[in-house]
Design goal:
4 helices, single chain, mainly alpha, flat
Length: 111
């Protein structure tokens, strides 16, 4: 954790830019496949554009970096920061579910 904190605070940009690029490539590919599959299975009524998926992944990356770079997290993620991140991700998730019209079927539901 100390190494990540140091890199985020002191990096000239080269390492973080490469890491960001790799993270966004993998994250957007995963999200594109995941949400595309929800749409194909009829669990989502809309699709996300590739640009939207990229923007959401970029936002997630920024939140993670903010968490690590916070001075209170030099020795590990604090409970306060962890809770804030979890809450932000939950809000994002519910927003995505609403926007895409995602509905999950349980065994008791009639499809």
């Amino acid at each position: 954790m100390k190494l990540f904190h140091m890199l985020l605070k002191n990096d000239s940009g080269t390492y973080m830019e490469r890491f960001r690029s790799v993270y966004l490539k993998r994250s957007t590919q995963f999200a594109s496949n995941y949400y595309g599959e929800l749409y194909r299975r009829g669990l989502a009524s809309k699709k996300l554009s590739n640009k939207t998926i990229y923007m959401l992944s970029s936002s997630e990356f920024s939140m993670i970096c903010e968490m690590i770079a916070d001075d209170s997290c030099q020795n590990g993620i604090t409970e306060e920061i962890k809770n804030a991140f979890t809450e932000a991700m939950t809000i994002l998730l519910h927003g995505l579910e609403t926007e895409l019209g995602i509905h999950y079927h349980t065994e008791g539901d009639k499809a």
